[in-house]
Design a protein that fits this description.
Helix 1 links the parallel strand 1 and strand 2. By secondary structure, this protein is of the alpha/beta class. The protein starts with a strand and ends in a 6-residue tail after the last helix. Helix 3 packs parallel to helix 4 and helix 4 packs parallel to helix 5. A 6-stranded parallel β-sheet has the order 2-1-3-4-5-6, sandwiched between helices. It has one domain: NAD(P)-binding Rossmann-like Domain (Rossmann fold, 3-Layer(aba) Sandwich). The longest helix has 29 residues. The chain is globular. It is built from 10 helices and 6 strands; from the N terminus they run E-H-E-H-H-E-H-E-H-E-H-H-H-E-H-H. Bound molecules: NADP nicotinamide-adenine-dinucleotide phosphate. NADP nicotinamide-adenine-dinucleotide phosphate binds next to helix 1 and helix 6.
């Protein structure tokens, strides 16, 4: 069996780190990216790369066909990773803003997964690794759209796991807290694209949100480098019994416990104070 893996969103952050490291460790990595300039950058670094834009079904189908062509119709693993965060109070988000967020973060992932699953079923093994978030099980103010997409990924993954019982295909969720990447930089662009900050009743809070998003380097305590996610990806790929969920960073462990033991009301009181302004 050739250890092949298809990864989305490799231009920066976690996808870039995981693609480079797995390549170095002998995997055949298909390191895809949304933009051609990112593909060029990845090719220059010696990776196999081509375009895959999760907003675009044709792009997803072409990328999948390319992989199939390269591997004689086999694929060991898919790492669904490419995504963005759209900050903003839910009442400020248009239908279009929410739709775009779901197109990339959820529907693109599932469309790609549904192309890959028959291949894995036929070959009799496979690994689907979903880069979810601590925000896939706790909510923070001004993260509603992103929260909703990660909750959706958790729901789809939990159900796929049940439907794949006995298939030798494993679905693992990775749930990172804060990780160093371009995530905040990209979120600033999305806020500017989709939210009319000055017209919003939340404009004062947005100034604080922007201050946090524009902070250079770690903006919150317990931020880890993307290698922390890589370690869990490697376990999900190489363990005989991959975990259904991998926590990454202290905040994920903490909120995992708090979610289990606190009432919704008490947890709300705690969460309402965080996320929006630091
Ligand atoms: N950083 C964190 O604190 C954190 C915490 C928990 C979970 N995560 C998750 O980790 C994953 C990777 O994020 P990151 O932190 O590494 O942030 P990042 O540096 O912003 O990387 C995000 C990647 O997704 C790509 N992407 C965006 N829209 C896409 C589309 N339509 N099609 C294909 N790719 C697209 C970006 O490409 P472009 O460069 O072209 O925009 C980029 O390569 C995401 O699923 C995120 O939700 C991150």
């Amino acid at each position: 069996m050739e250890k092949t893996i298809l990864i989305t969103g490799c231009s920066s952050g976690i996808g870039y780190c995981v693609a480079k490291a797995l390549h170095t460790h002998g995997y055949r990595v298909f390191a895809t990216a949304r933009r051609q300039e990112s593909v060029e950058m990845l090719l220059n670094e010696g990776l196999e790369s081509f375009r895959l834009d999760l907003q675009d079904s044709d792009s997803i189908a072409q990328a999948f066909e390319h992989v199939m062509h390269q591997t004689n119709g086999e694929l060991y693993a898919l790492f669904n990773n490419g995504a963005y965060g759209l900050p903003g109070a839910i009442e400020d988000l248009s239908r279009k803003a929410l739709r775009d967020q779901f197109e990339t973060n959820v529907l693109g992932w599932q469309e790609l997964t549904n192309l890959v699953l028959p291949v894995m079923r036929k070959q009799g093994y496979g690994r689907i690794i979903q880069n979810s978030s601590v925000l896939g099980f706790v909510s923070l103010p001004y993260r509603g759209a992103y929260n909703a997409t990660k909750y959706a990924i958790e729901g789809l993954s939990d159900t796929m796991r049940l439907e794949l019982t006995g298939s030798n295909i494993y679905v693992s969720l990775i749930e990172p807290g804060p990780i160093e990447s371009k995530f905040r930089e990209n979120a600033v662009k999305m806020l500017a694209k989709y939210v009319d900050v000055e017209k919003s009743i939340h404009r004062e809070r947005y100034r604080k949100v922007l201050k946090r998003l524009n902070t250079k380097g770690p903006a919150v305590p317990f931020t880890l480098p993307p290698e922390a996610v890589l370690r869990r990806v490697v376990h999900a790929l190489e363990s005989d019994k991959p975990h259904p969920r991998y926590y990454v960073t202290f905040p994920t462990y903490l909120f995992g416990i708090l979610k289990r033991f606190l009432s919704t009301r008490t947890l709300d009181a705690l969460l309402a104070r965080s996320g929006g302004d630091h």
